Amino acid sequence: MTARILLVDDVEGSRRLLQAKLTAEYYDVSTAADGLSALAMAADEPPDIILLDVIMPGMNGLQVCRKLKADETLKHIPVVLLTALDSREARLEGFRAGADEFLSKPIDDVFLFARLRSLARLKVMIDDLREREESSRRMGMSPMPGARLGASGGRILIVDDDPEEAGALAADLSAEHRPFIEADPEKALLTARGPIDLAVINIGCHGFDALRLVAGLVSRDYSRQAPILAVVDPRDRSRLLKALDLGVNDLLPKPFDPLELRVRAKALIRRKRYADYLRDTVVQSMEMAVTDPLTGLNNRRYMMGQLDALFEECKSGSEAISLLMLDIDQFKRVNDTWGHARGDQVLKEVAGRIAACVRTMDLPCRYGGDEFVVVMPATHLSDAAAVAERIRCAVSASPVMVEGQDIRVSVSVGVSTNEGEEDRPESLLRRADEALYEAKVSGRNQVMLRATKR
Fold first, then answer.
1. Rounded CA gap, 113 and 115, in Å?
2. Rounded Cα–Cα distance for residues 328 and 445 (Å)
3. What is the mean pLDDT of the chain?
4. Which residues, 6 or more positions from 230, have their beta carbon under 8 angstroms from its beta carbon?
5. pLDDT digits (tens, 9 = 90+) for 251-287
6. Which long-range contacts (C-beta less than 8 Å, at least 24 apart) are formed by 171-180?
């Protein structure tokens, strides 16, 4: 997978050499010679990944990284720090600045390209979710943030057949998280149904193929969203690179540093929770687009789409489609007498009674105002009439209790069906509306039928 990369290095020779290598791998590379230029370029045209030299005059790489991660529009861009420094303190400082990876010079090209592929996959996923969330927000459908986006209290699955190493991993993580140790890959897959916030897997397990476990976690619906931190032996290059290709999100070299473990785990869990939030926001926004916010029933737009689909099936010989159209009798009087707030409570209660009377295959919807529609697939007129009568009785049987007040209401119902003949959704709705009008003028609180004219 290719990506747009911003390469930042003050040394022209190093910059040109790495740019040539990246271009040969079909990456789209732009370059900057200092931190200020890099920030301006990133703001003007955000790249997919930033490769950032740490030691630069003026604003160094750590300062640039902190500014990037503090910018709401740029903080989701993965940052890889490049430096000749390889001390524990330098690495930890880089991760605290928000870096996604810390590579020491001279750069291992094979490892760099494998890491870039992994980060590019992650960036594509986050960008897609953010774009959908932003589209929902522009349409006014995005719910208020409700997710817990912190990086503490995570449920972490540790998979390692070395009891001593597994215990050390769990001990270092237990101060902030809830680690669970599994030495058996099959049990690990069962534990991952939990769900989990992070999997820490020793790629060098002797009792089983840990890479196969990675593939299993990545391929299953219930665990593929959980990030994987692979504990690796840096000398085992083939397994390390294979782990990245399979979808491992981050690497922890042996012997692992407890502080680096905690920093990497915290970053992965925070990113996972943000992705979960975006994913949930998209789902909720989609639900909002097809749901009436007052009653919780599906709205008119969704109903029409489903009705169109049913009529398409009907053309191929499917069974009859019936439709109920309901109207609360003299609902204006309810609003005038009790107020619109109590009127809304009546609407919600009536919607609940309607939903309780229909079958799971039926589609109850709020059509607009105090009108409701129930779409009934594979239902003939007589059966639809029986459901309509059941709804009418359920609504009028007992008053609606609102703030200590008993408000009695009833509904009139019009029933229509196409009985499998050539028809259109609009004509089915029109006949149900005509039947509803007959029920109204005939005294209300009753059911009237209107079948297709033969």
1. 5
2. 9
3. 88
4. 201, 202, 203, 214, 240, 243, 248, 250, 251, 252
5. 888 988 898 899 889 888 988 888 888 777 766 666 6
6. 172/258, 172/261, 172/262, 173/200, 173/261, 173/262, 173/265, 175/262, 176/152, 176/262, 176/266, 177/152, 177/153, 177/265, 177/269, 178/153, 178/154, 180/155, 180/156
- Structure token digits, residue 128: 């897609």
Decide the pairing of beta strands 101-104 and 155-159.
unpaired
Amino acid at 43: A
136 within 8 A of 142, measured Cβ to Cβ? yes
Structure tokens at 30: 């732009």
Q: Is the pLDDT of residue 213 over 80?
A: yes
Find the mean pLDDT for residues 366-383.
93
Please give the single-letter amino acid code of residue 123. Answer: K
pLDDT of 247 above 80: yes
pTM of the model: 0.62
How many beta carbons lie within 10 A of that of residue 68, not counting itself? 25
